[in-house]
Amino acid sequence: MAGGPAGSDILCLQNSFADLMLVVGLDENTGLIPELSVIEGEGMMKNLFYGKFEPQVLCAISSNNMMHFFPHPRQDFEYPLQQLETKQNLFLKSASAYNTLDCIPKSKFNRATHQSRLSIRSTSVTPGAISRHMSMRRPYASLKKTTYVQNLASSQQFPVPDEVIKSIQYFCFPDDLQITEQKADTSVHFLVLTDIHGNKTYATCITFYRPYIIEKEYDGSLIPHLDLSGDNSAVAPDRTRCYIPVCCTLISKYAYFETMKESLSYMVHLIETESEDMYTYIKLFAHRLTMTPTPPPGRVAIEFCIHDMSFTISPSQEAEKQVIDIPLYLPFLIFPPDEILRILSAIMVENRIVFIASNYALLTVIMESFLNFILPFEWKYTYVPILSSKSLELLEAPGTFMMGCHSKYKEEVNQVGGLVVVDIDEGSLSINPEIADDSRSVRSGDSDSIEDLLDIPEIPEEAAKLFLNVCRKARFQFDLVDTKRPSHFNLNAERSYRRRKIQALNDLIVSGCLELMVNLFRSVVTETRVEYKRFNKQAFLDSKSGSEKSFYEKVMKTSMFKKFLKDRINDKTDYWVKLEVKTRPQAKSTESGPSVPNRRPQLRKQSSVAVIALNTGQFHNSPVFRMPALGDKVIVYLKETIRLLSVAVQKSQHFQERASYIYLLGMFYLACNKLTLALENFISLASIDVQILPKLVVTKICQQMKESELQDLISRPGFQALSDLMGAPVSESIHRKLEESVNIPEKDLYYDEFVECVSVMEMTSDTDTIGRLFRALIPSQIHQNFIDQETFAAFTHCWKENNKQCLNLGISDKDLLESECVLRVSSLCKTDYGTGRVALTDRRLCFVKDISSETREITRLSKILELEKKTMFSFLKQVKVLRIKNTGGSRFTAWLKEERDDFCLLIEEMWAGKVVSDCTKDIHAIQKAAQNVLLVDALLQSGLDAETAHHGNREEAARQLCYYRKYREEGHHNVPAETKEVLQNRIDPNYGERERKTVHALLYTPGVPEHSVSPRLWVGLGDGKIKVYNASHWLLESEFVQTKQSVYMYICNIKKYETHGCTCLVAVDKKHVWAGSYGIFIIDIETIRSNKTLMDHQEIVVDIVSIDDGRYAFTASINGIIMKWDIQKLTQAQPPIHLENVRDLRSIKYHQEHIWCGTWQKILKLSGSGQILQELQFTVSEPKFQPAEMDCFIILKAEGENTKDEIWAGCRREGEILVWDIDGTEPSHRIQLDCRGISDMVVQERRIWAGSKDGRIYIINSDSKKAFKTLLAHDDAVRSLCNAENRYILSGSGSSDGKIAIWTPNDTRTESGTYIGI
Questions:
Q1: What is the residue-wise DSSP string for 813-844?
Q2: Cβ atoms of 344 and 172 closer than 8 Å
Q3: Exposed/middle/buried for 382, CB within 10 Å: 0-12, 13-18, 19+?
Q4: Interaxial angle between packed helices 954-961 and 925-942, expressed in degrees from 0 to 180 and rounded to the nearest 10
Q5: Rounded-to-integer distance, Cα 571 and Cα 1018, Å
Q6: Who contacts 478 (Cβ-Cβ below 8 Å, separation ≥6)?
Q7: Which residues pair with 24 in a beta bridge?
Q8: What is the pLDDT of residues 525-547, one digit of tens each?
């Protein structure tokens, strides 16, 4: 691998700004090669300025190799350019050193020399020959030194595929090479080259003209000679003055079009100043540009100098996006807003599109701009921004493509049917009429008609209207702004101003276009089930109105949408996800509990949100790293750069800057063949910002190393994370189509398959409910562990039929409450209100009158007093009726006949769910009960089929599934009054999980209204998952998994450690939350995403404390190691503190500039440097268990001047709390509580909330040291407590309960019944 393999003497950069420079044209070494070989001799001289000539690749230059191809292939052994130490003599201009033909005698011409050139020329003009020569690397024929041969044998290939070399000259001169009588203007155009694997290479071409004298030879051939005389006097009759174009092409892996244009323009400026030194300057620029790195995505830009001019390489804003180095505002000056939206739509539905313009440079800029506008969607088909005159036949190729060509070929373009033609000169879009029997426009595998393909659907109106604001702001013209600016004479200052202004405009446009993509496809998230790799295509389309549906139906057929959907299903975190989460409307937050299928006939309207500030007046100044001078020795340059980067790492004040410097440092160590140091930096980079980690480079380095060397490296301290970095990537392949409909399996279902089917069909995701349903469908007398195919098919059919009945009931939206769902509709029956149907919803019972569908409320669920099943007589027949009594004394009777018992059971379950929800404040109980009703109904209806397994005991199976009915009958819903008055809500973070986990950590963060960030509750679970709730509505906003737990266990490879998951959550500043586990995960509060991990602790992190207003943080691991961090830099602010003989550190506090550490047996007071200043032993008066151990401690600040701060510590296995004065050595108080142990404590004003192992919370008066209230909190131990700015107290429980209780502390009363104010 270049720059990395052991033993290689080649020094090059993996992230170089340019990979290769090519010089294309004709000169005295090639002669004039006419396009039409029939034009020779006198005819060619007469048609000199009218004919076309075939350009040739004259030379190729990489970072360490230069090849000339004419008059014969040879390597330039004087490259890289040797620079003198003196500033006055920057360039070596010796003809012998460069061995170029620029320095031939100007006064006469040597025919013998020309004749030899002619004989050689004929064998070296084909592109294939050039490509082969570039691979052969042959030295001069006259050089026989073995050292040269050895160096060439070890040389690397040029970093450009052969196919690029074979065709590049035709794209450098898309209209063919033409010789001019007068000097033409220098011009620039841009290329995008795509290889067979879809990898793109970017090129900038600058074409300039050099003066030549054409001499007619004795054999009739024409030979050009460079004219450096500057004399325009007449020449001999057999000679002609002319100008021959030369194209210098800079090729790069990165799309730095404007920066490459600047550097090439300056190079041409110098060449035209001293034309005889063309190759001197080309070598100088090529070497500098190929040895200059590109910055990683982030904040740091790179500046380098050539001669007396500086150039800046700006970084990409996002790790997932390529750099944008073109003016994105140009399309908004050219096209009206409506046309821009039409072009975007044409691209998104993957039409066959051709852009035409009279300016080749504009073609690439406009086409690249539109591809940036649709990100994160990516064009996956043929993409050729510039078609040469010889490749116009590609327009007739079948399939989908996006191409560009000169407007002079507009007539040819219009002859191809089915093309969407975008005319840049006129700012318009048109569609060529399709030619009969022409199938070129049909994509393979699609069944679209020609009419459908020619139709460009309109972008949905709501999102389009918001995008018009971006269009208005993006119509920027420098001339209008410059009217108020004074004239500037500092070229560098003016260049800097324009660059920053364009960057600000680009940021605005990129943000606006991303906002458009989020608004268009936000509801994809709603219909995606990540855990089952499913997307509900039909539900997504059903949520769209008729005018919008056409757009989405076409887009969903495209390759780019399928790639976008795959990223969403794989839960990829990219810039689209970050903005979607940031701008997600409250109503669209992921529900924290069960969802009930939408059983009301309305569209789920997707919201479009505008959040991008349309302000282009502010510039964002990025820190700049200035590259050192590139001297005569590359190794010296590399070492000096490493030194400067090392200094920058130490001085950087922000972790993102530091990440950029570490990235560059790793690349330069790799260029120096120092693999271990390179890997060390990349491992450090992974902990700071894993998104910019060059994973392919790390993998290649590891592949170059021997297995023994690699294993030895992984065993070293600090290199353990290398196993994770070089791990095999997770396959993106999915075993089924992502958007396929969910079909009933044609086989018997075992439990795991049953769980997936029920969850994907959105019947329920609650593991306990699924388990009960599985057991209900298999009666106890049937000894089998699967559900037969017929039973599940009947059950599913009944569940879907009930859904259809509810939707077809005919109730209008105005007759339903907000978010109300119809669950069950009776058959037509006689009632007290007339003939009609009884409808059960999740809120109430309603009567729907026959024919008119007039709706009347019978009763709310909360007001039901009694359900009475009776038998009445009608026309001498016994009829089963249901009588409903409510708390208001009214009654309602329905003659339900044979469905009475089933309907009554459903009402009882829904009624019980409402009662349980009101009593326990469990906000999920109503939704869970509604789901139970739907499942019980499907169970009862399918049980009528004699072929089902539960046919014989359908009623018993249904009662088994009615969880809340049984829960209420057993009295579990009864909560003590003193608990009920303080309890506000309960939420279940374990809903939908296969196994319930302990709530280990809770954190409340306040909202930031100016950034559209709501108050949030962060929940750390025992399996490493962190769930984030909107603390205003207690709805789940986001969920992600910490995977480092499993990585840690893999690396240790010794024994399976006890899994603690997320142990602590702390908001270290206003922007970041740190999560402790096997490492420290740094989460951005605004986007709820983590890209940074600190892995310095070798064991589990048990506690984190932020100090000095978020400037520093202390972290502690269970093995007694405490580290102090600079939060901005993400570096250790001081050497780690090692507590001797401590293997059970539980928690730390920071108080009065001292660190307080709690272990099982004692509390230690440390100085800032780690010196032990005080030690408090933990002893219990009458211990039941030995030894007595402490599980938690807090520090209570004194309220008055005459009081002291106190330390409160809770016993792990005893109901006792010890209290010390802050400077005492013995406990001043012992508080006895009737419980099995104290697990956590939190301070709320002057009250202590103590959570116990038996699920109770004791509220203790800190002055009297007495518990005045006991709350029945959970069915398992209270494992975590959190004070939400005195607004709430939140408690999390052990895995048997796994829920979170939300308490209102200001409603707390004393034993006498009076309120305690806060």
A1: GGGS-TT--EEEEPPSEEETTEEEEEEEESSE
A2: no
A3: middle
A4: 170
A5: 19
A6: 498, 501
A7: 57, 247
A8: 888 888 778 888 888 888 888 78
pLDDT digits (tens, 9 = 90+) for 287-302: 999 999 999 999 899 9
Burial of 146 (0-12, 13-18, 19+ CB in 10 A): exposed
Cβ atoms of 854 and 842 closer than 8 Å: no
Q: DSSP string spanning 836-885?
A: EEEEEESSEEEEEETTT--EEEEEEGGGEEEEEEEEEEETTEEEEEEEEE
Report H helices in 225-322. Answer: 257-273, 278-290
Query: From the CA atom positions of the chain, what is the Rg in Å?
Result: 38
Q: Dig out the tokens for 705 from the structure.
A: 């190393």
Distance CA 749, CA 792 (A): 8
Element (H, E) at 46: helix 41-46
**CA distance linking residue 845 with residue 863, whole number of Å:** 11
Pairing outcome for strands 1266-1272 and 1035-1041: unpaired
d(CA 430, CA 424): 11
What distance in Å separates the CA atoms of residue 1210 and residue 1238, rounded to the nearest whole number? 5
CB 312 within 8 A of CB 624: yes
- Whether residue 1286 contacts residue 1318, with contact meaning beta carbons closer than 8 Å, is answered with yes
Geometric angle at alpha carbon 479, from 478 and 485, rounded to 5°: 85
Give the neighbor-by-neighbor strand order of the sheet with 1278-1284: 983-987, 1300-1303, 1288-1293, 1278-1284
- Reference 1225, options 1177, 1270, 1260, 1181; nearest CA is 1177
978 CB contacts (<8 Å, ≥6 apart)? Answer: 1269, 1270, 1271, 1309
Q: Look-up: residue for tokens 């009777």?
A: 893
CB 1044 within 8 A of CB 1078: yes
Parallel, antiparallel or unpaired: strands 983-987 and 999-1005: unpaired
Q: Where are the alpha helices (DSSP H) in 962-1076?
A: 963-969, 977-980, 1044-1052
How high is the pLDDT of residue 335? 95
| Secondary structure (3-state) at 690 | helix
Q: How far is CA 1164 from CA 26, 35, 801, 1106, in A?
A: 82, 88, 67, 19
Say if residues 1279 and 1294 touch (Cβ distance below 8 Å).
yes
The reply to whether omega before 376 is within 30° of 0 (cis) is yes
Quick check: helix, strand or coil at residue 190?
Answer: strand
CA distances from 1189 to 394, 999, 1266 (A): 79, 22, 22
The parts of the chain modelled with pLDDT lower than 70 are 1-11, 36-43, 81-157, 162, 435-454, 585-621, 717-718, 720, 723-742, 781, 875-876, 1040-1060, 1306-1318
Rounded distance, CA 1086 to CA 494, Å? 36
Tokens of 347: 């691209």
Element (H, E) at 464: helix 461-474
Residue pair 192/186 in contact (Cβ under 8 Å)? The answer is no
Q: Are the C-beta atoms of 778 and 949 separated by less than 8 Å?
A: yes
Q: Where are the beta strands (DSSP E) in 339-477?
A: 353-357, 382-384, 401-406, 420-423, 428-431
Location of structure tokens 């506000």: 984
- The answer to whether the CB of 1103 falls within 8 A of the CB of 1143 is no
The pLDDT, as a whole number, for residue 42 is 60
CB atoms within 10 A of CB 486: 6
Contact in structure between 614 and 469 (CB atoms under 8 Å): yes
> Which pLDDT score is estimated for 3?
47
CA distance 387 to 403: 7
Give the DSSP H or E segment for 1094: strand 1089-1094
Per-residue model confidence (pLDDT) at position 215: 85
